[in-house]
Design goal:
Length: 178
């Protein structure tokens, strides 16, 4: 897999000489991966930002300091220089950047707010700590809209935690709400 520029529209919310903030739509993969060699956010980004180039042939995320799942919409921060990229990556890794999500859950979550403190599978298959905080914004007849903050950044953390509780994210065909 190699990263090639592609003319794909980006919803840019903020830009200066150091930083881009872009609204990623649902359905867009952040960077090339098996099964998604093109049409990604990264392909669009290097077309838009001509000075942003991969460090080497293995770099599929130039300037991208965090990611969102394919079906998740939301803001992505893009550093236009290596100094800012390292600073932002460090802040994301240390948890000093707050990330908040709105999730529509299948079913009516009974608690108004809570914490899900339950380990999840890590990259090597070993369980790793994972903590998700939530607050109900609104209950509907068969669903719940919840504001969610993750204390750890595990793969599919929100989807896995709510599926474990029996309230999967609506239309999550991978972890429960088929």
């Amino acid at each position: 897999i190699s990263l090639q520029p592609e003319d794909i529209a980006l919803d840019i919310l903020y830009e200066d000489e150091h930083l881009l903030i872009i609204n990623k739509p649902p359905g867009m993969v952040v960077h090339p991966a098996p099964g998604h060699p093109s049409g990604t956010f990264a392909n669009a980004l290097i077309h838009y930002c001509k000075n942003l180039r991969p460090k080497d042939a293995m770099d599929l995320r130039p300037g991208i300091v965090h990611r969102l799942d394919k079906d998740t919409s939301g803001l992505l921060l893009v550093a236009k220089n290596e100094t800012l990229a390292q600073e932002l990556e460090s802040r994301f890794e240390s948890g000093s950047v707050g990330k908040e999500y709105l999730c529509l859950l299948a079913g009516r979550l009974p608690e108004n707010e809570g914490v899900i403190d339950s380990p999840l599978p890590g990259r090597e298959g070993n369980e790793v700590p994972a903590m998700t905080r939530f607050k109900v914004e609104k209950r509907f007849s068969d669903t719940t809209l919840a504001r969610v903050r993750i204390e750890t950044g595990r793969m599919h953390q929100i989807r896995l935690h709510f599926a474990k509780l029996g309230y999967p994210v609506v239309m999550d065909d991978q972890h429960g709400d088929f």
